[in-house]
UniProtKB/TrEMBL annotation:
A Pfam family this chain is assigned to: ECH_1
Single Gene Ontology MF annotation: delta(3,5)-delta(2,4)-dienoyl-CoA isomerase activity
Pathway annotation from the record: Lipid metabolism; fatty acid beta-oxidation
Species this chain originates from: Capronia epimyces CBS 606.96
Protein name (record): Enoyl-CoA hydratase
The entry's keywords: Fatty acid metabolism, Isomerase, Lipid metabolism
InterPro entries with a match to the protein in the record: ClpP/crotonase-like_dom_sf (IPR029045), Ech1-like (IPR045002), Enoyl-CoA_hydra/iso (IPR001753), Enoyl-CoA_hydra_C (IPR014748)
Superkingdom of this protein's organism: Eukaryota
């Protein structure tokens, strides 16, 4: 079952495996879920709609097939003459640079749409999680991975600096521009699930393969979806707003946010359910 406000997508399976939980699965397994043109715009459309869908309280993001979350950019497609990177026929370098900048900003906006989703997004990573896989994963709120996941900030190996999110978000996920962040970004060397967990890229490594990963991710998403959506979405918003702010600035931001949100019925319901030892239910948001 798909969310009622979403249409069908060619390169994504969008389902509702449990009440208030949406599962977005990248669906190009024959190409290791590598990205090319249409996939970007479909992903943006999906997350723009889920962000404001009152039925959605948690989003899972995974990759179809057994081999990859995503192997990153489809380099064969990027090498085609009509691709912005390869295209010629410009009057001078300034004009080509303008087209390239616009193209990069468009792709950055797709990944930022995932990061800005009002609902918490849980990445379920397995197999190859290369290049764009790191961009996408670091834009999500929470990351679980299978024990056999192979990670790589791959862009240096294809002759460019990662430009749609990794170099901006990975340091924040990993706790700063650490020696480890520079090591894996500069060298493009693959690293393991164990190393990813050690350096805060993932919070959970799931033994037993992809099926167990999806199962554990879904159980967590159902648990998260049972919470007050006012509280969960507000918590995500305030945590994200803390990036780049001083403590004092974010405390003030929190006060302004909660002066409105503390007036929801969720607060009373949560408190009374605790006193009565009953599971609360909450209105849509």
């Amino acid at each position: 079952m798909a969310p009622r406000n979403l249409g069908k997508y060619q390169f994504y399976n969008v389902t509702v495996p449990s009440e208030n939980v949406v599962h977005v699965e990248i669906n190009r397994p024959q190409k290791l879920n590598a990205f090319f043109g249409p996939m970007w715009w479909e992903l943006k459309d999906i997350f723009e709609k889920l962000s404001v869908d009152p039925e959605t309280r948690c989003v899972l993001l995974s990759g179809a097939g057994d081999r990859a979350f995503t192997a990153g950019l489809d380099v064969e497609d990027a090498a085609k003459p009509d691709n912005a990177i390869s295209a010629g026929g410009f009057a001078d370098p300034s004009r080509k640079a303008t087209v390239l900048r616009r193209h990069i900003l468009e792709l950055q906006e797709v990944i930022s749409t995932v990061a800005r989703c009002a609902k918490p997004v849980v990445a379920l990573l397995h197999g190859y999680t290369y290049g764009l896989g790191i961009d996408l994963a670091s834009a999500c709120d929470i990351r679980f991975c299978a024990a056999d996941t192979k990670f790589c900030v791959k862009e240096v190996d294809i002759g460019l600096a990662a430009d749609v999110g990794t170099l901006s978000r990975l340091p924040k996920v990993a706790g700063g521009v650490t020696s480890w962040v520079k090591e894996v970004s500069l060298s493009a060397r693959p690293f393991s699930a164990e190393e990813a967990e050690k350096n805060n890229l993932v919070s959970r490594v799931v033994a037993g393969g992809k099926a167990e990963l999806i199962k554990e991710g879904l159980e967590f998403a159902k648990y998260l979806a049972s919470k007050s959506p006012v509280a969960v979405q507000g918590t995500k918003n305030i945590l994200d707003a803390a990036w780049g702010r001083t403590v004092e600035d974010n405390l003030n931001y929190t006060a302004v946010w909660n002066q409105a949100m503390l007036q929801s019925t969720d607060v009373q319901r949560a408190i009374l359910s605790g006193l009565k030892k009953k599971t609360p239910t909450f209105e849509k948001l």
